[in-house]
Amino acid sequence: MKAAVIVFPGSNCDRDAKVALESATGNPVDMVWHGDHDLPKVDLIVVPGGFSYGDYLRGGAMAAHSPIMREVKSAAEGGTPVLGICNGFQVLTECGMLPGVLMRNASLKFICRPVTLRIEDSQSIFTAGYEEGQVVEIPVAHNEGNYFADDDTLNRLEGEGRVAIRYATADGETGPDGNPNGSARNIAGIFNDTKTVLGLMPHPERAADAKHGGTDGKAMFDGLVEALS
Amino acid sequence: MSALQNTPAITPEIVAEHGLTPDEYQTVLDIMGREPNMTELGIFSVMWSEHCSYKSSRKWLKTLPTEGPQVIQGPGENAGVVDIGDGRAAVFKIESHNHPSFIEPYQGAATGVGGIMRDVFTMGARPVANLNALRFGSPDHPRTRHLVDGVVAGIGGYGNCMGIPTVAGEVNFHPAYNGNILVNAMTVGIADADKIFYSAAAGVGNPVVYVGSKTGRDGIHGATMASAEFSEDSEEKRPTVQVGDPFTEKLLLEACLELMATDCIIAIQDMGAAGLTCSSVEMADKGGVGIELNLDTVPAREGVMTSYELMLSESQERMLMVLKPEGEETARRIFEKWELDFAVVGRITDSGALVVKEKGETVVDIPVAPLVEASPEYDRPYDEIEAPATIRSENVPASEDIAAALDTLMSAPDICSRRWIWEQYDHMVMADTVQRPGGDAAVVRIHGTAKGLAVTTDCTPRYCKAHPETGGRQAVVEAWRNLTAVGATPLALTNNLNFGNPERRPIMGQFVGCVKGIGAAARALEFPVISGNVSLYNETNGEAILPTPVIGGVGLIEDIDATVGIGIPGPNHSIVLIGETDGWLGNSLYLRELFQGEEGAPPPIDLEAERRNGNLVRSEIQSGAIAACHDLSDGGLLVGLAEMALAGNCGLSIDYSSDLADHAWYFGEDQARYLCVTESPDALLAAAAKANVSAVVLGVTGGDTLNLPDGITISIGSLRGSHEGWLPNYMAGA
Questions:
Q1: Which CATH number fits domain A3-228: 1.10.260.40, 3.30.43.10, 3.40.50.10680, 3.40.50.880?
Q2: Which residues of A are catalytic?
């Protein structure tokens, strides 16, 4: 499997994503500069975490308009899988590849800690390494992770099985107790309508090796390798 | 030379406003051989400020040990450098941003973090860990909550955006900081040992290049502000605080590291305190050359900035470099790729002078060597501070309820959980954080290897106040112990010496005492000082802070699989106490938190015992014989046990009974002690006996309570509530 990681000015989890992907695939990862117009032919595109363009306007708002995102969008329309992590999720919503928006955390504070998540749907290339209903622990680190969409959109996402991951308690309860940032219906990650694009706030690349204190994120990369190789 | 005189006449009032004494001004006149103009006076003012010249502290700083086989670069550059093997080096320094953070907490703290990161990547290192040491006023003071909130958000705002994990720190609250908080920020970076960049300019005719952000009017006179006491009108100083732009600094970091991978740079210096002035003068002085700057080419935010403003601005995210002439185009391409300003603003000359031109006219002409070397150095008079009388534990009231006393301590502002703070810092970005905040020292993996760096910041100001020399020693040994407790070999330290007004004899006495203590401990432990910062005049209306010499320590872990944390890993392990307990309660947190007493001599520091006990603990951790370890400090033995139980979510039962009175045994703050959790206590006791180290088995792990002799049972759940609750409740205004 060949993967590419998009690098915007201000991306800062690009190297972490590269390390996790190279460890899972055994292949070198293409790092693609935001100003480039050519996307290499790859099996997976990752839009990484960080503060693209400083996020001074709104998380991901500037990056959504960079030249490379036109290419990413068109590759996604052609069926190339795209994974947006944290700031990458924000970018994907800002450029319309995923519905909804990520608002300031309800606490109005940056939150960095491991959270427990429930895998809602394992019928995708991203979540095939998990069981439906499985509770996993993966860190979040964000200021704007509070997922919001109108009720019709939320109902549609749920109806179409496009809620990939929810914040949950260790027992798998998805009430307010398990919600770190105020996200609507505890949503931590969603698919596009073909489940070939996933945006999520948690950082699977920070739970991908034993020294991270947990390896629950590794199954996402391993599942992708299995599905795309 | 007409522009050199074309300014208002320099009156004694103007000299005083620039923080120069009449004697210092006379030296200026002697150096110049004429009256300086305003810009020149401003340059002397910032270069000779306490902040830039260390004029009160230099005499004493020279007494500190700065050498060792591991030291590649000691104090005097942007940061210190130590060898960590495999052709790599750790580069680190700590720096204060106290005054600005009090005036504008978010930006003050943010730019403090930005400044120290620049110091580290200027040397060619990629920053891999940020730390901090914070001191706030009493929780009851009306400003404290606002300051905590702003400082924490500012530190997070800058470090998170840069993508450098903030992994460790310390926080104290005390009324002595009501008018002067302390914000000390430390950065640790990793570089190739043969690709360290220095600041000595060379090569007559070589281009002097300015990169980074444009220069604005922010921060003019920041260095002078940091060299004076506060008074009622400090609010008016808000315009001297700089505004941070972490996104630009992230670009600057990547651009600088990309350029450093080529062979274009002769010298590089970040523009921090005193901006363009300090960076150009230091580069010229270290290289023994002159420098000529053309202000018309300096990227400016506004069109009508004067030479005075351009030379003294402390706008952030700027660097000055001397390039090889053939490297200019390569460098320009890299900075243009990162969309940063790149301007050739001058040349290296053989004049030995700092010459500044504006619109074709010379507006500054100052000989560099005397500007640096004739800077004042004071041997300020001081009072020797004797240790207060020792308070014997029988003269400290015994607590009738040990469980209640523990609960009080675990929820005390100086001991309670700092989770509310460090969850606002991205402490995992770069995916190499092996030990997260909350333990004795954080550990970051050296990327792509099985080695790690352990990092910590430490100081116990109440000990320093009681007896500066003991307090100085204690700060060093606590940092050394914290590194040891995760299995690291301590390499070197950086210090941030925060004190009041050195022109007062008792304050200078605190400074001298603490430096002597730091020197003695650093020598005995072969733990040299490789960088640092001095922050004086932390006073408001004559009320000084507690003496606060913060020590930032860095240690090397050869095998990160062998590192341990403080959390009890599970049941059926033995708990072993290493080191001797006399029940020292003078100036303890027990005395302060339960009986409002801040008196008595601090615990004595036996450097030989520290070394012996620490070396044993480290070698046992490295050999895999210890599963968890915690050094004992604030709050003593029972607080240490409770912290280990909470971190591991596992209870313990103590069956060892000491001859000491309960309160002295449980809460005494005797030094050179560690708690070790092990599956093979006999082997550990045997190793201790062989090393002539005192060690006893206290009990075993297991269950969900702390069980003490005499039937005392404390639930971990209720302790956790007390420990985790105080800070978030306080910040919520509850």
A1: 3.40.50.880
A2: 86, 203, 205
